[in-house]
Specification:
The protein has helices at 6-14, 20-36, 38-49, 53-73, 76-83, 111-124, 139-151, 166-169, 208-220, 240-256, 268-275, 296-299; strands spanning 101-105, 128-132, 157-160, 173-177, 189-191, 199-202, 232-235, 279-285, 288-293. It is α/β, with parallel strands linked by helices. The chain folds into two domains: 3-80 and 96-191, 3-Layer(aba) Sandwich (Aldehyde Dehydrogenase, Chain A, domain 1), CATH 3.40.605.10; 199-302, Aldehyde Dehydrogenase, Chain A, domain 2 (3-Layer(aba) Sandwich). Strands 3-2-1-4-5 form a five-stranded parallel beta sheet, with helices on both faces. 27% of the residues are buried. Mean pLDDT is 83; it is low at 258-266 and 298-305.
């Protein structure tokens, strides 16, 4: 194993992070470091992403909520009782062993939350963490990595700017890739493909107003670049008209909000729609368009579905 990961490997083998008190202390230290630098972190996120102030705050507080929830799930008394359940003649059916090492390749989108949402559960489960990060001029990664390195034990957390192979770790591990993978996906590889199409379903018994609000927020929030925002909505025909009406009401502000007085040029999608009789434009604006696709099989050839 390469020298930079020797400490990580030793910590994973000796099992120090299996101790629930140790894990809670590490999470507490991480939470304190991020909370004490709330303004700096949010300023960095806003500068890098150009997101709205409310969206920046949501990303920040969701990340801290992940830490709080993970901290609350660790119960030393319960862990001790489960550990000695066999001595009392009881089966320890809930016993779980950590993998050892988790390698995280964080997404560039919503970087702060993406990193914390993968790092914290892995840490709470008793694993050491290695983050494989690319060199970047953005402020958020530099600031966040600096805070994490100062708050966590240096033997359980490491950062690498180079690709990490299995031979470098030389220990049981899981790789979490949040931006897809170019190579083969192995059994210990958790991959999120941000380019994969996302489909939302609205059933006939759904709360139409709530569904419309959630769909519009997901699709048009974060500048419309969220990887898990719905690309296509499949709706039960009985509530289709009601949903379209609700979507128009909810999305008018998003579609019309533009500081430019110049009419934007039509996108390739808009031009394709004009040629496809099976597609109707429900609402169009400078920031997007809502389409009513009558024949999804025919429209799939134009890339609408």
């Amino acid at each position: 194993m390469t020298k930079p990961f020797a400490a990580i490997r030793s910590a994973a083998i000796d099992g120090r992070i299996h101790n629930p008190f140790y894990r809670k202390e590490q999470l507490r230290s991480l939470h304190s470091a991020l909370a004490e630098n709330a303004v700096q972190i949010q300023d960095a996120i806003a500068k890098d992403s150009k997101h709205q102030p409310a969206e920046v705050k949501v990303e920040y507080w969701l990340a801290l909520q992940v830490i709080s929830e993970a901290y609350a799930t660790i119960d030393p008394s319960k862990d001790l009782e489960q550990e000695y359940s066999v001595t009392k003649g009881h089966d320890d059916t809930t016993s779980r062993e950590p993998v050892g090492v988790v390698v995280i390749e964080p997404s560039s989108h919503a970087f702060f939350y993406s990193l914390i949402s993968a790092l914290v559960p892995a840490l709470a489960a008793g694993n050491c963490i290695i983050v494989q990060a690319q060199n970047s001029l953005r402020e958020t990664p530099r600031l966040v990595f600096e805070l994490i390195e100062k708050s966590l034990d240096r033997d359980i957390f490491a950062i690498s700017n180079q690709a990490i192979g299995a031979e470098d770790i030389n220990l049981a591990h899981i790789r979490v890739s949040q931006s897809g993978s170019d190579g083969p996906i192995l059994r210990n590889h958790l991959v999120s493909d941000p380019k994969a199409p996302v489909v939302a379903f609205v059933e006939r018994d759904a709360d139409i107003q709530s569904a419309a609000k959630a769909l519009v927020s997901a699709r048009f929030g974060l500048q419309g670049k969220a990887p898990y925002a719905p690309d296509v909505v499949l709706v039960n025909e009985w509530v289709k008209k009601d949903l379209l009406r609700a979507l128009v009401q909810q999305s008018t502000e998003f579609l019309a909000s533009s500081s430019s007085k110049v009419r934007p040029p039509k996108s390739g999608l808009s031009r394709d729609v004009e040629k496809d009789e099976s597609v109707n434009v429900v609402l169009s604006g400078s920031n997007g368009v809502i389409l009513d696709v009558q024949n999804r099989y025919r429209s799939s050839s134009t890339g609408l579905i």
